[in-house]
Amino acid sequence: MPLPAMTHSSAFLLPASAPSPSNDAATTTYALVVLNQRLPRFAPLLWARARLRLCADGGANRVFDGMPELLPGEDPAEVRARYKPDVIKGDMDSIRPEVKDYYSNLGTNIVDESHDQDTTDLHKCVSFITRDLPVSDKSNLCILVLGALGGRFDHEMGNINVLYRYSSTKIVLLSDDCSIFLLPKTHTHEIHIEKSIEGPHCGLIPIGGPSTSTTTTGLRWNLDNTSMSYGGLVSTSNIVDDDIVTVTSDSDLVWTISLRN
């Protein structure tokens, strides 16, 4: 029996003036999570597209400090008031007291989970979104995560681990340089490439375990029932040639693609 198909698109990074895409991205419900790293240049765009906006602990500092820096022509006080997170959630060991008080006074929901030391702040935020997002149908949910890449390597690996722990939920990790998301083995995958904003460099990484058979189309160097594993072949520095890339694998894979400045 053939596997069901899953589509992916980075159309959420297209300028607001761009035409609406014809694929499933046009009907996607976005939630935004901000972690404790420098905000990428497209943070205001994704903030506007999100239905729910969460800061993970020190991510609130980044919004408080970074949004005025990304919008230098505007009054910083007005920018801070406009970009108010709906929820701040996490251990509360990184957020500055004055930032916490500022957003609390504006009505942000502060959720202290310092009692839970077994999960990361991103895990806590994803759990909150998948449980409490006020939409009846979460099948079109996509969680965009800013600040998941860069900084400490163990934090990066913990964030990638969240992709595996929530493999049935679309989660995209974003930095100024690239995007990363999981391709679960339970589906075939059709990745719509937005060439104005992403590529050409890409990679397929079997982080969760070896793949004995991966097949692709749309890449400069396609895989044909290829085995991949750490200690063996890993598909890095590949090139996107077509507008659609397809991937079928017997293992969960991480897909990554470069973002254009």
UniProtKB/TrEMBL annotation:
<dbReference type="InterPro" id="IPR007373">
    <property type="entry name" value="Thiamin_PyroPKinase_B1-bd"/>
</dbReference>
<dbReference type="InterPro" id="IPR006282">
    <property type="entry name" value="Thi_PPkinase"/>
</dbReference>
<dbReference type="GO" id="GO:0004788">
    <property type="term" value="F:thiamine diphosphokinase activity"/>
</dbReference>
<keyword id="KW-0808">Transferase</keyword>
<dbReference type="InterPro" id="IPR016966">
    <property type="entry name" value="Thiamin_pyrophosphokinase_euk"/>
</dbReference>
<keyword id="KW-0067">ATP-binding</keyword>
<keyword id="KW-0963">Cytoplasm</keyword>
<dbReference type="GO" id="GO:0016301">
    <property type="term" value="F:kinase activity"/>
</dbReference>
<feature type="domain" description="Thiamin pyrophosphokinase thiamin-binding">
    <location>
        <begin position="187"/>
        <end position="253"/>
    </location>
</feature>
<dbReference type="InterPro" id="IPR007371">
    <property type="entry name" value="TPK_catalytic"/>
</dbReference>
<dbReference type="GO" id="GO:0030975">
    <property type="term" value="F:thiamine binding"/>
</dbReference>
<dbReference type="GO" id="GO:0006772">
    <property type="term" value="P:thiamine metabolic process"/>
</dbReference>
<dbReference type="InterPro" id="IPR036371">
    <property type="entry name" value="TPK_B1-bd_sf"/>
</dbReference>
<comment type="pathway">
    <text>Cofactor biosynthesis; thiamine diphosphate biosynthesis; thiamine diphosphate from thiamine: step 1/1.</text>
</comment>
<dbReference type="Pfam" id="PF04263">
    <property type="entry name" value="TPK_catalytic"/>
</dbReference>
<protein>
    <recommendedName>
        <fullName>Thiamine pyrophosphokinase</fullName>
        <ecNumber>2.7.6.2</ecNumber>
    </recommendedName>
</protein>
<keyword id="KW-0547">Nucleotide-binding</keyword>
<keyword id="KW-0418">Kinase</keyword>
<dbReference type="GO" id="GO:0009229">
    <property type="term" value="P:thiamine diphosphate biosynthetic process"/>
</dbReference>
<dbReference type="GO" id="GO:0005829">
    <property type="term" value="C:cytosol"/>
</dbReference>
<dbReference type="Pfam" id="PF04265">
    <property type="entry name" value="TPK_B1_binding"/>
</dbReference>
<comment type="function">
    <text>Catalyzes the phosphorylation of thiamine to thiamine pyrophosphate (TPP). TPP is an active cofactor for enzymes involved in glycolysis and energy production. Plant leaves require high levels of TPP for photosynthesis and carbohydrate metabolism.</text>
</comment>
<dbReference type="GO" id="GO:0005524">
    <property type="term" value="F:ATP binding"/>
</dbReference>
<comment type="similarity">
    <text>Belongs to the thiamine pyrophosphokinase family.</text>
</comment>
<dbReference type="InterPro" id="IPR036759">
    <property type="entry name" value="TPK_catalytic_sf"/>
</dbReference>
